[in-house]
């Protein structure tokens, strides 16, 4: 467990409280090991986590992360100091982002149609590559070069995961591309996605240019089922999807190693929100929902569904934190979810 910075130190304990309750009624025991890494650690040691941090995480079943980020430290340092090393060292090649309308969270869109789709983002290569550099520093012709890395192995396994997920849902897979402007990597992506999806009879594949896809996601988000995208495109689309449902504060994500060879990491989409940190008003839904995703990944789908139903019911009853127009504190909303859990556990 890495609470990290800002509101992460508030919403992680809140979600842990919910997990303990759901575990108690499902005979699931949690053994949380806390690592106090993040910006405070950086200020003391000059790095976001210790040199042997990845080795210390490796024996665990999962990583439960709050948020990292501090105005006094560059985003590059916080991202490449914790998140990206964890994702790549543990081969968390899928970033899974559910986009779902929650009753009680008002969407900025004028629609009553429910939104329910999932974004599958390739999480370890693509545009977020370490290959490149800068030359002629300080001169008028200073140059920066950044290379994208797309491998057949990496694209195929992301497409395969997305296809299998779509096969269990409504059978429609949308692939984000930009093959009309990015002439090497994107046609390569398109070819491999099409080849992979062809192995799944009954699955419908639609390849859509990223700009048109972003527009369609705003105009008719209810049309989507599963969206598969490269690292950069998936990053952008998943934040857009979260905003469409009313608040980025309620969105969860899972950084998955699907084979469970290594621990996967579960975190909310929101950042450390230093402007509200310490006030006890942060929305814990994103972290609680990430906890439900963790339960599902670890083989407890019933408990995951019960936890999700519990926070959805509290929100649907008109109770929420301030970001959603309510007046509840983090602690009050968490307590309400914990009280609602037994009701849904009895229905399993």
Write the layout of secondary structure elements.
Blueprint: E1 2-4, H1 8-24, H2 39-45, H3 53-57, E2 62-67, H4 75-89, E3 94-100, E4 116-122, E5 132-135, E6 143-146, H5 152-168, E7 172-177, H6 185-197, E8 204-209, H7 210-219, E9 226-229, H8 231-244, E10 252-256, E11 264-268, H9 285-297, H10 301-316, H11 330-345
Parallel strand pairs: 1-2, 2-11, 4-9, 7-8, 7-9
Antiparallel strand pairs: 3-4, 3-10, 5-6, 10-11
| Helix-strand sequence | EHHHEHEEEEHEHEHEHEEHHH
Instruction: Kindly report the average pLDDT value.
Output: 93
Q: Termini distance?
A: 28 Å
Count of helices? 11
**Considering DSSP H and I runs of 4 or more, what fraction of the residues is helical?**
40-55%
Q: Please give the number of β-strands.
A: 11
Q: What is the level 1 CATH name of the largest domain?
A: Alpha Beta
Describe the protein in words.
With 348 residues, the chain is of the alpha/beta class. It has 2 domains: 181 residues, Isopropylmalate Dehydrogenase; 137 residues, 3-Layer(aba) Sandwich (Isopropylmalate Dehydrogenase). It contains 11 helices and 11 strands. The strands form 2 sheets. Strands 1-2-11-10-3-4-9-7-8 form a 9-stranded mixed β-sheet, with helices on both faces. The protein has a two-stranded antiparallel ribbon with strand order 5-6. A hairpin with a 7-residue loop joins strand 5 and strand 6. Helix 1 crosses helix 9 and helix 5 crosses helix 6. The longest helix has 17 residues.
